[in-house]
Design brief:
Strand content: 25-35%
Structural class: alpha+beta
Oligomer: single chain
Shape: globular
Strand order of the largest sheet: 1-2-3-7-6-5-4
Radius of gyration: 15 Å
Number of strands: 7
Length: 156
């Protein structure tokens, strides 16, 4: 990933951290916001509708994973602390009562397995992951900002 891409991703993260949360859920383009959260795709690979070569898919996933690693290293260096790695599977049932329309953590649990989490300020946390909603869809570098600290997964 180029220095320009790192700077662009850092600027997007800074914007997400500084932006107010929407009072009502709102999805605009690659961003989703609501009370206490913002979720955005920072970059994505190609889609795989017509791609049948596993090497092409693997290479695309490695590029997005590398972008995650480079951005994580930049944030860790800037903030002076390594992120916590959080398993997302416990959040799969999060944000119910309507499992057909999961909230942001439930969505992330449906497209990714782990979330790198930082607490850059007392009132906001940041999570980064690579997600893919379907094998035909692109891999995405996803950033989520939440109010307070990352909520505990539901007991159960």
């Amino acid at each position: 990933m180029s220095d320009t891409e790192v700077a662009s991703h850092r600027a997007a993260v800074d914007r997400l951290l500084a932006a107010p949360f929407a009072e009502r859920e709102d999805r605009e383009g690659e961003e989703w916001s609501g009370p206490g959260f913002r979720l955005a795709a920072l970059t994505e690979s190609q889609a795989f509708w017509e791609v049948h070569d596993p090497e092409v898919v693997d290479a695309a996933e490695r590029r997005i994973e590398a972008a995650l690693g480079t951005l994580a290293a930049a944030l860790t260096g800037a903030w002076g602390g390594a992120p916590a790695t959080v398993e997302l599977w416990p959040y799969r049932e999060c944000d119910l009562p309507d499992p057909a329309a999961p909230g942001p953590l439930g969505f992330l649990a449906g497209v990714a397995s782990e979330l790198l989490v930082w607490q850059p300020s007392a009132d906001r946390w940041l999570g980064l992951t690579v997600g893919q909603a379907d094998p035909a869809l692109p891999f995405r570098l996803l950033a989520m900002v939440g109010a307070g600290s990352l909520p505990e997964p539901p007991a159960g």
